[in-house]
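Hi everyone,

Forwarding the result from last night's run.
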Amino acid sequence: MKGKNKKILRLIAGVGLLIAMFLSGCAPMNQVGNIAGYVYVPIESNKEVNIIVRGPGDVPYGYQPLEGAIVSAVGAPSITFTDENGYFLLSDVPIGTTTVTIVPPVSSAYKALTTDVDVKPNTTVFVGNAGIVTPPGEDTENWIVKINQVDASNWPVVKAYVQIIDPTDNTPIIGATVNDFDIEVNASEISSFTVEQASGSVSFPASTSLVIDRSGSMEGVNYDDKPLNDAKTAAKTFVNKMSSSDRAETISFADYARVDQPFTSDKQALINAIEKLYSGGATALYDAIWQGLDDTAQETNPRKAVITLTDGGENNSSSDHGGDGGAYWWGNPNPDNSLLIAHAKSLNIPVYTIGLQGYDFTREKVVRDYTTSEADLIEIARETYGEYFYVPTSDDIGNIYQKITMRVQQQYIITFIDNTGYGGIYYIKVKVYYSQIFGEAEKYIQ
């Protein structure tokens, strides 16, 4: 009996201990779990930046790991820091709902993040989706929405490639979901569609025509080819950042346009072609863009773009492409970009233009008998649903290429089935309601 009584007493004591622990708000012994996650911040942003937490395969394009952030949780016995991959692990956190706080390094401009996590016993819980990706600027009233491209090659399945831009700092908005969009096609609402955006686990290959000015003015004011060399360096950086499924070609232009390397995914072949560029001659700008459009149209990658860099205006292209048949040498030129714009629209390919300041380019350019302004480059970009960038010095070219890369990769892909009964896509309107701010765009398809 004495042995049985001791067992009963030990059992009663154990139950009493458990009851006391619960009544005091403590978790039972071993009733703890772990919290893990990956912390990221934007590579480039002009506004106060939010930290986000995502799974390693779901990081938005344009974000990078944040190292050195302090991570704590209510009830956790200790804090931890994010490593070079943005990873953190909090161990032995009491079970139940707790609040995780992530504080960025003191030297950074990032905002702290708090989020609630439900801790499970003897389990590592990953914080998979916390933080707003791109909050609006304080003065943002409307989004700028651009329909860069509409792919109806597999009609009735249609894909629209869309950008959302915050006009306060001209940066892309990422993180919108299908619930933030409304689609109208051929004057009819589309009720069923999907929205995707590139992330760590989802990518959409791009085909890009790199069109580079190698005219005489790219030699620079010191006759040392600095503008051209900076352009070459930026183009090679662009190539090195291509994914294995991306493709590109290089076209250069002076007196005439020349395909230096046809479309390929071979980075070294593209770099070799870029290295061989040299300056000298006129500016057959329209011929080069036209060639880039024709080549890109033959590509099967879903994303397509032509990126054009020049430090001067059109003065030597064929009249078939809107030039004046080499009028640079004979005076009285009369270039007309309407043919080029119409061609780009017919192929549904956006043209991004870069205007490089130089001795042969000003914001209001006058060269010999030829007078124009950067308005030509702005109009080509705007009317083809691309974007124009002004570069005051050649040192900034690399940053612009990076911006354009992010623009293309951060497009939203909206996929839907056209059941409007018109036998094709003639008109599309995209409305965006994101973070309580509205924006819309429309596009007529030729």
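The longest helix spans residues 2-23.

Cheers,
N.
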